[in-house]
Amino acid sequence: MRGHWVIKRIPLPWFSRDKSQNESSPLIPKASSAKEDAEEVDLVTPDCMEAGTTKGQDHNNSNSYSLIDYFLKYFLFLCNFMFTVLGLVVLGLGMWGLVSKESFAQEKVGSIGTDPMLILATLGLVLTLLCLSGCVGTLRENCCLLKLFSAVVLVLITAQVLAAIMLYSLQDQIGNYLRSGMLTAMVHYQDDLDLRFITDEIQSNLQCCGADNYRDWDVNIYYNCSAPGVLACGVPATCCVDPLENGTVWNSQCGVGAQLLDEFTAQSVIFLGGCLGGISRWIEQHNGLIGTVAVVIVGVQILTLLITTRLLETIQRH
Predict the structure, then answer these.
(1) One digit per residue, pLDDT tens: the chain, 318 residues?
(2) Helix axes of 275-285 and 287-317: crossing angle, nearest 10 degrees
(3) How far is it, in rounded angstroms, from Cα 41 to Cα 172?
């Protein structure tokens, strides 16, 4: 038999295999590379997280309403709500006056354009629609309604400023316009209850009679001296110095025949001065109050316009 010798290979240094990973191993990542990646992640991740958190906080802060924004929003809502209620009341009074006088009847509808109640109803309708649009637009944060509301308010402010300029420039002609209006009211005194009420209030409060003097009541067909009734050559009871008989009973016949009296005799019965002079004196005495009220009204409208503009910018920003 041939003997077989098993020779054990002695490992020699130059035959030792390099078991460390080389760069040609595609499937197994390098340990050093993984370690470096981990270090980079440890370095980058906190910074990214901090930056992301800060950005999220800034985004939330930019989308949040401030306390003053909430205050202005609900303040504008409450103001518009109150004026909406006021507009409804004015509209209701105007419609009640038109219906109670039967102004929509076929024989009266032709003269409805000069009816003071129609002016009252129109004013109430415009005020209601305007303030209702502002109220709903503020509560619902509707940009279209708020833009409409601010545009109408701007138009009203412009119209009021132009009207004040015109009144100042035409102040010499205002007296003629007042005289024409007063004479028109006297002509229709018995036919229109509203004009009668306004005329009586002016004469009783200003203690005057007629436009320029008490004989102006001759323009009325009932107080004209050629009229067949008992009121001929007379004046309304609100022209009388003491229209109350015994201090309690209203004497509606106290001005009968007053136009036939001379001024010396008539001054003990009726007021001789016309209402145009009384209106001029009243305006001069309350000039400061009238100016203050006008400035306050325009100032409130300007403040409302500024608040609406601020609210619109806030809504559009968010």
Answers:
(1) 444 444 444 444 444 444 444 444 444 444 445 445 545 444 444 443 444 444 444 444 445 668 888 888 889 999 899 999 999 999 998 888 878 776 666 555 555 566 778 888 899 999 999 999 999 999 888 889 999 999 999 999 999 999 989 988 888 788 888 899 899 889 989 887 888 888 999 999 999 999 998 999 999 999 998 888 888 899 999 999 888 766 667 778 888 888 888 888 888 889 988 999 889 888 888 889 988 999 999 999 999 999 999 999 888 887
(2) 60
(3) 87
**Tokens 């109050």 label which residue?**
289
What are the tokens at 101? 């006088």
Tokens of 236: 């309304």
User: Which residues have CB under 8 Å from 148's CB, separation 6+?
Assistant: 133, 137
* Amino acid identity, position 76: L
**What would the two tokens of residue 280 be?**
């001029």
